[in-house]
UniProtKB/TrEMBL annotation:
PROSITE patterns: GNAT (PS51186). Gene3D superfamilies: 3.40.630.30. This is N-acetyltransferase domain-containing protein. It comes from the Eukaryota. It holds the Pfam family Acetyltransf_1. One of its GO terms (molecular function) is acyltransferase activity, transferring groups other than amino-acyl groups. InterPro entries: Acyl_CoA_acyltransferase, GNAT_dom. It comes from Fusarium oxysporum f. sp. lycopersici (strain 4287 / CBS 123668 / FGSC 9935 / NRRL 34936). Residues 183-333 form the N-acetyltransferase domain.
Amino acid sequence: MSTIQSQSSPATLLWDHQDLIPLQKNLGEEDLVLLLTPAVVPLDQSPTNAGDPFEPLGKALARTHPWIRHVPYSKERGITGIHVAFIKRARVVIFVLTGFSTEEGLFQLELAEVAREVCEERPLVLVACCEVSEKGARAYGFPTLIQCPGYFVADLQAVAVLLTSERPTTEATPKTRNSPPPPTWPLLKWDYDRDLPETHALWEACLPSKFYLNRSTLGSRLKRDGYAMHYLVREPHKGEAIGFCATFTTFTDSSGDRLIGSIAAIIVHKDFRGQGVGRFLHDEVASKLKKIRGVGIIQLGSTFPRLLYGLPVPETDTEWFEKRGWNMKESTPGNGRRVLDWLLRFADHPVPDLASAGLTFRPCQTADYQKVVEMANKESQKRYRFGWYDQYAKTMDTCYVNDIVVGLEGENLVAAAITYFPNNGSPCGADIPWPASIGQGIGGVSCICIKDEDPDMVNRRDSVATRLLLACRQTLSERGMVGMFVDGSRSDENVLQSLGFCKWAEYKELWRKA
């Protein structure tokens, strides 16, 4: 539907992609309409207008449909269980906000996002009582949007008229001739045989060259039957692939019933950005992951198999994800903490001559199984190292058990790391593509576990980490490797730099409870 505004009305219908207006054509006699409005100071502060400034909107709507329930929301409490209960009872939800780009407005938009998630399949109308940038509004992807300049009584009455009046398309006047409404994007399940070539082309069109993968490598990471769900958006007329989203589910620890849902990648062709494709993919897959039994955490990025650890920095439009409700302004777990991938080329830095510090390192043996997986499990739980237990357990259960390097202080096992080699079939090698993509002679080290809080340990973490990495370097070198890749490091930066490692990629670590 085009932009609609009557000659005398201050309210404008920017778009109605769900064909919801007039409301009464979608309502039964006893259907509930929920009106959610912010607790704000009235613009008209005369004694006769001392009540809730949005009461006139509720009253005006009730003239057409009697079942209107008006429930305010506040900045202090946000969307509460009471709001959720009413949303679940409602047939239609009208969410009102008084700002869009202001600090207050951004907070109200976050609450609108929450309400939209709770709505699930219920229609939601966003009413913006403020100035709105049409381009900015489209980025949020609300399917029905009404705008008015403020929330005086006249503004709200005009909104009610717009919500309840039939508007023939012949009366519609485009506000901006060059801004047609975006199409409705169909969500298609990804098919390996049919869609891989176009997905690979889209991957290379959207990502920096260091993240390029050949088609078979990308395909092998995506084809994980049983715990992968990927989706594609095609341009409706030509049918070309314009958007892709990869998702996985992985066990977080040894519990066997706790899962992490990974939004491993969302990519949209540059010619179709700003039209709601990415927003549509993000919201659809987040909703689907939440419905999977056992998924308690959703992350941006992926654990194993690995595509991108988190949001690549600085390549990602972080503001876009902040609008989706992701907090990335803190250096805390899941809220934007910095995570790095590192690369060392052995020829660039000689092996330092260090005393043993009472530590010995050797290949893992079958007898170490229990101690190693217990340490990995504790690391997973304590430090949010999602998927590490599963990775250690899978490696220990194969012929690649000796690729795990363990560190001992006396008889006490204090450290472990998994080494892997290009195309040798090991679990880590099959899950992390980047060493092989950098060069055939680059090996990898992953899941570095150090019992640095063990009261029986004499050495500090830096001392153990340094010697563990040197032991891994020796293991890789003896197998003919000329370099070493360390993924997903959230600490040990000084140690890695002292050993000659250079930063290969930087990410923001982002996850939240489902």
